[in-house]
Amino acid sequence: MTGAVRELARSAADTEAFGARLAGCRPPGRELAVLFLSGELGAGKTTLARGFLGAMGVTADVRSPTYTLLELYPAGEITLLHADLYRLQDPAELDTLGLRDYGQSGYLWLIEWPERGAGHLPAPDLTLTLVVLPDAHTIEARAHSALGERWLAQLRAA
Q1: Beta-carbon contacts of residue 6 (< 8 Å; ≥ 6 apart)
Q2: Can you give the pLDDT at residue 1?
Q3: Mind listing the pLDDT tens digit for each residue in 83-138?
Q4: Phi then psi for 46, rounded to 5 degrees?
Q5: In this predicted model, what pLDDT tens digit does every residue of 58-84 receive, in sequence order?
Q6: CATH number of the domain that residue 118 is part of
Q7: How is the beta sheet containing 78-84 ordered, strand by strand?
Q8: Neighbours of 140 (CB within 10 A)
Q9: Conformation bin of residue 46: beta by default, left when phi > 0, alpha when psi is -120 to 50
Q10: Choice among 35-39, 40-44, 57-61, 126-130 with the minimum mean pLDDT
């Protein structure tokens, strides 16, 4: 796939705002969507997810599901799955979470630390990479599917 969208975030509020803008650009429909959030500890993955989930109508307190591994949030016509795989010791552990049950239309996945689930996750539609800089961090959104390309086109136009 081609192209990427890059943004500089100077604060947690900027990162949350990007997450909210990303949610607002979600293509319509109930097609399964998978977003990978990559970056070192403290890069802002959960902050981005919090902005995204809030913009999708989630009113619950959004924290990293580091210990539960995943949380589900109903959001109108779809269900949002937020997973943090940081504590995963082996990708095969994902099989016990029942992720296959959520790999269908009507679900949108936000996966932190997706590299820890290699071989046990569906391919992403978008990869969001957060890189820490001395006074800020960058967020890069890259498409990997036709759905991801439509999403990035909407994001560029926003």
Answers
A1: 138, 139, 140, 141
A2: 53
A3: 989 887 788 878 887 888 899 999 999 999 999 888 889 999 999 999 999 999 99
A4: -70, -35
A5: 887 766 665 567 888 999 899 999 998
A6: 3.40.50.300
A7: 4-9, 137-143, 126-132, 33-38, 107-112, 78-84, 70-75
A8: 15
A9: alpha
A10: 57-61
pLDDT digits (tens, 9 = 90+) for 2-29: 678 999 999 999 999 999 999 999 999 9
Range(s) of the domain holding residue 127: 4-157
Number of domains the chain contains: 1
What is the token pair recorded at 116?
A: 């820890």
Extract the tokens encoding 45.
């993955």
Confirm if 127 and 38 have CB atoms less than 8 A apart: yes
Inter-residue contact 110 to 81 (CB < 8 Å): yes
